[in-house]
């Protein structure tokens, strides 16, 4: 029974499930998502894609976010192959770097550590390059990462210019990432960067169309892809 606005604090406390474990809470959350998701939304996704959509709904408590989710190519098997090979992982925010589960990564390749996840946005030389060139640290960070982006798993949740630059480098055949999870959030350059990834590259990708996005969603998408294989191993 859910708490209501007119409940007293003691009534609210009685309705809280204090004794649940984290795993039980997640399982119950997924059960409620499955029971409440509109049929037309659920029918848009096969099993693998629904796992990603469900994880994003779980992260945001917003069913409509699934309607903005788009897939290019096969980001699942491509990611699996890259993970097993210990491919470099690039992200545009330290929130993503902190949020990715290294124990999950290590189940695919034991060489993975936190340091395997590249994020240069706060590096002093990146800040200096951004100042010198009159651009953003996100762009300068991508430039620094170029030598390591071939075959990389790329997660963008914060900086649309980072996604646009990676797409442009791919178009120019300077790099070829294994997969891109393109979910930057904001109002400037956001939709354009996602469109560029979708219409001008053939890299396997998961994209959240429109203005919505964020680092937690990029992490959630990668975790959902990893869990697809870990749960079915």
Describe the structure.
With 233 residues, the chain is an alpha/beta fold. The protein has one domain: Cobalamin biosynthesis CobH/CbiC, precorrin-8X methylmutase (Rossmann fold). It contains twelve helices and six strands. It has a six-stranded mixed beta sheet with strand order 1-6-5-4-2-3, with helices on both faces. The protein is globular and about 60 Å long. It starts with 8 loop residues before the first helix and ends with a helix. 38% of the residues are buried. The model has no long low-confidence stretch (mean pLDDT 94).
Which structural traits does this protein have?
single chain; 233 residues; alpha/beta; Rossmann fold; 6-stranded mixed beta sheet; 12 helices; 6 strands; 52% helix; globular
Low-confidence stretches: none
Strand adjacency order, main sheet: 1-6-5-4-2-3
Shape: globular
Share in β-strands? 5-15%
Structural class: alpha/beta
The biggest sheet, with number of strands, parallel, antiparallel or mixed sense and barrel status, is:
6 strands, mixed
């Amino acid at each position: 029974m859910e708490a209501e606005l007119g409940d007293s604090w003691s009534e609210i406390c009685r309705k809280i499930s204090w004794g649940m474990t984290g795993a039980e809470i997640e399982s119950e959350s997924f059960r409620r998502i499955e029971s409440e998701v509109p049929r037309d939304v659920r029918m848009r996704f096969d099993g693998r894609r629904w796992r990603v959509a469900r994880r994003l709904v779980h992260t945001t408590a917003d069913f409509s976010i699934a309607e903005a989710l788009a897939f290019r190519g096969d980001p699942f098997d491509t990611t699996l192959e890259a993970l097993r090979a210990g491919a470099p992982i690039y992200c545009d925010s330290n929130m993503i770097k902190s949020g990715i589960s290294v124990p999950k990564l290590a189940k695919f390749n034991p060489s993975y550590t936190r340091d395997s996840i590249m994020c240069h946005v706060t590096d002093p030389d990146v800040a200096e390059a951004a100042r010198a060139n009159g651009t953003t640290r996100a762009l300068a960070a991508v430039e620094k990462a170029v030598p390591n982006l071939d075959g990389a798993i790329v997660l963008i949740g914060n900086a649309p210019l980072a996604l646009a630059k990676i797409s442009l480098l791919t178009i120019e055949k300077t790099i070829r990432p294994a997969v891109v999870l393109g979910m930057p959030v904001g109002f400037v350059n956001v939709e354009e960067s996602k469109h560029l990834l979708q219409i001008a590259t053939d890299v396997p990708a998961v994209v959240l169309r429109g203005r919505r996005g964020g680092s937690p969603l990029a992490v959630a998408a990668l975790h959902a892809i990893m869990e697809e294989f870990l749960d079915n191993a």
